[in-house]
Specification:
By secondary structure, the protein is an alpha/beta fold. The protein has helices at 4-9, 21-26, 28-37, 49-52, 62-73, 91-96, 102-119, 144-149, 152-164, 182-196, 219-227, 248-267, 286-289, 307-320; strands at residues 14-19, 40-43, 77-84, 126-131, 169-174, 203-206, 209-211, 232-243, 271-276, 293-294. The protein contains 14 helices and 10 strands. The structure holds ligand G3I.
Length: 321
């Protein structure tokens, strides 16, 4: 068995993918690859607040429940994504939040975290409790959470999540923290302080959205310093975008990006999982956000494996050796 999940199992690593649940329902090839290549799944969108509570007080867990059932059928673990974020909030909340008091907004956030974690209790391996709370310069992002509640919303969210599912591993998750610098240093200081205060945080997720035009100087040593705080680490949203059309030079760089990020996880003992942010270039979020870029995943537009896929296979095979 040369599937990614079988090879990863030899190193005790879970290999995951973000899942587009529309594709899972409509595309047989997509469904088959999801089931056979990966040992962990992350809902790309369907556990986000705007999806699970489109109308205040009315939950819709149906799409997320279907993915959790799929994962159970296929012996996969689930990364829950994401509880507290500034994006993809329900319209009712965005409209009402500015005129709410801090106490009102805190009560709404607490209810959301507790209700969602309780709904999935026992079924989530790792939760992304707080997502993308920092700016690239290391200051806290100016979200409704920071504006109204101040920085304490972060530790509150971890405590609420832990209360609702004491066995789930609770993660802080962000992008552009793969290399050392102001943002990564700020996250490091945050999680070190949370640990020191006894806040129930278990890990840090490094999204790892790469672009071939930017270097990735020190991922492994950066993962290691977080690990040395007594935290788990995970690469949670790996993809490697480039300008289109892809030249052979750029594809080599993409292959190198997938290889080096997986090697870093394999080299750090507390790195629990390596998750790609979807597979199949036709399903990737990248072209919709970065004009002229794409080809960021390990399968092409027709769901045929690319050299990036083979690179992950080979890296996993060596990792086990
Ligand atoms: O739900 C509507 C649907 O009703 C409508 O028909 C359709 C038309 O475009 O839009 C749908 O919403 C889209 C949603 O994905 C579901 O497909 C949103 O417009 C679109 O903005 C949204 O994009 C998601 C993005 O997060 C939102 O910020 C991407 O799929 C998803 O890959 C991306 O994932 C994030 C992680 O959660 C956090 N880290 C960064 C990563 C990439 O941006």
């Amino acid at each position: 068995d040369t599937s990614l999940r079988a090879l990863a199992a030899q190193s005790g690593l879970r290999i995951g993918t973000a899942v587009n649940t529309d594709a899972l329902a409509s595309d047989d090839a997509y469904r088959s690859i999801t089931a056979t290549q990966f040992s962990s799944v992350t809902p790309e969108n369907v556990m986000k607040w705007e999806v699970v509570e489109p109308t205040q007080g009315t939950y819709d867990w149906s799409a997320a429940d279907r993915l959790v059932a799929f994962a159970e059928q296929n012996d996969q673990l689930v990364r829950g994504h994401t509880l507290v974020w500034h994006s993809q909030l329900p319209a009712w909340l965005t409209a009402a939040a500015p005129s709410m008091s801090a106490d009102q907004l805190r009560a709404i956030l607490k209810k959301h975290v507790i209700d969602e974690v309780t709904h999935f209790r026992g079924k989530i391996w790792q939760w992304d409790v707080v997502n993308e709370a920092f700016n690239d310069d290391g200051t806290l992002r100016d979200s409704i959470w920071l504006q109204k509640l101040g920085p304490s919303y972060i530790e509150d969210a971890f405590r609420w999540a832990h209360q609702a599912d004491p066995k789930a591993l609770l993660f802080y998750n962000d992008y552009n923290i793969e290399f050392t610098g102001p943002k990564s240093n700020a996250v490091y200081a945050l999680v070190r302080d949370l640990k020191a205060k006894g806040v129930p945080i278990d890990g840090v997720g490094f999204q790892t959205h790469l672009d071939t035009q930017y270097p990735l100087p020190d991922l492994q040593s950066n993962l290691q310093r977080f690990s040395d705080l007594g935290l788990k680490v995970a690469e949670t949203e790996v993809d490697v975008r480039t300008t289109l059309p892809v030249t052979p030079v750029e594809q080599n760089a993409q292959v190198g990006g997938y290889t080096s990020t997986l090697q870093a996880c394999l080299a750090v003992r507390s790195c629990l999982s390596y998750t790609v942010w979807g597979f199949g270039d036709a399903y990737s979020w990248v072209p919709g956000v970065f004009a002229g870029e794409g080809a960021a995943t390990i399968y092409d537009e027709n769901l045929q494996p690319k050299p990036e896929y083979t690179a992950l296979q080979q890296t996993l095979a060596l990792g086990a050796g």
